[in-house]
Write a structure and sequence with these properties.
Length: about 325
């Protein structure tokens, strides 16, 4: 059960309307790492958690807080859009939607939301449930959570430097602080999962005897860079071996014959260039090229001989 409190978690009052910035703030609402994403991520992780207790409570507490963050941002967007369709460039353009577009506002905020926030990113792309991670494995999920909070805090920090509105900055300062706390809590929760003996650093903590024992400790050096082997990952109690210029272990990645009904181009010979017809065409091209070259050479020689004879006759005269 959820209950709504009418008061915001933190104040969301801009000093003045700013439709351009309202559009930018949409990223913190409906972007891949926005508040809608972490809200649903934590909710589904909590609902999927198989253990009652501290981990589930932490998830549900944080998820519910994130719902409040969506509300704060939506309120801020609505207040930043206050009067925007009618006032932005209204002197130049009488149509309010066109005026809003010229002013930098997302027209969907006016057309679809009536001057409010949308469940979308700053480009108007709708929020997608595919953004969230809720695997049922708490270690994998908590790592995803820490990464999501890092990305969200990064975007908030960038947006903080894109405004000089004191009211907006105050709210973002609060958001930055909460993103800091949430990163810390997930990192500490990861440590506690290991301390409690529920998980080990590798997810999942099984199948170690089943996996290929030759290839579970090597890094393949497959780029032109040469500094990779100098990293700390090649040292310590469980060092990784850096393979320089490793050879591929499999055969050609050839797809099987297509279904005849799909009319895919196909030859029973693996390399079409190696077929008799292809070889014959190539040989014919070579012969033609050589013949043309010889013909051109003979013509040139013939012209030179004729010129010499003509010059000799002229001298005799």
């Amino acid at each position: 059960m959820f209950r709504h409190t009418k008061r915001l978690q933190f104040e969301a009052k801009p000093e003045r309307p700013d439709p351009v910035y309202a559009r930018k703030l949409q990223e913190l609402i409906g972007g891949a790492f926005g508040e809608m994403s972490v809200t649903m991520q934590y909710l589904f992780q909590g609902w999927n958690c198989r253990m009652e207790g501290k981990y589930k409570d932490l998830l549900m507490d944080t998820a519910t807080e994130e719902i409040g963050h969506v509300e704060m941002l939506a309120t801020m967007v609505a207040r930043l859009l206050e009067g925007a369709p009618a006032t932005m460039t209204a002197e130049a353009v009488q149509d309010p939607v066109m005026a809003a577009m010229l002013g930098g506002m997302d027209p969907l905020q006016a057309i679809m939301a009536g001057g409010g926030a949308l469940p979308a990113n700053c480009q108007g792309v709708p929020w997608n449930g595919g953004y969230i991670v809720a695997s049922g494995n708490l270690l994998a999920d908590f790592r995803a959570n820490a990464a999501a909070e890092a990305q969200g805090r990064l975007q908030t920090a960038r947006l903080y430097n894109m405004t000089d509105d004191p009211g907006v900055k105050a709210m973002l300062q609060f958001n930055l602080a909460r993103d800091t706390v949430h990163q810390k809590q997930w990192l500490k929760a990861i440590e506690e999962l290991e301390t409690d003996g529920l998980e080990t650093p590798i997810v999942p903590n099984a199948f170690f005897d089943e996996e290929d024992q030759v290839h579970n400790h090597t890094i393949w050096g497959l780029s032109d860079g040469t500094e990779g082997p100098k990293g700390g990952w090649t040292e310590g109690d469980d060092p990784l071996e850096y393979l320089i210029d490793p050879e591929p272990l499999g055969g050609p990645g050839t797809a099987p014959a297509p279904d005849p009904a799909l009319f895919g181009t196909y030859s029973t010979v693996q390399d079409v260039k190696g077929t008799v017809k292809a070889k014959a065409r190539a040989a014919k091209k070579n012969v033609t090229a050589r013949t043309t070259k010889k013909s051109g050479s003979k013509k040139a020689d013939g012209k030179k001989t004729a010129a010499k004879k003509k010059a000799k006759r002229a001298r005799k005269r």
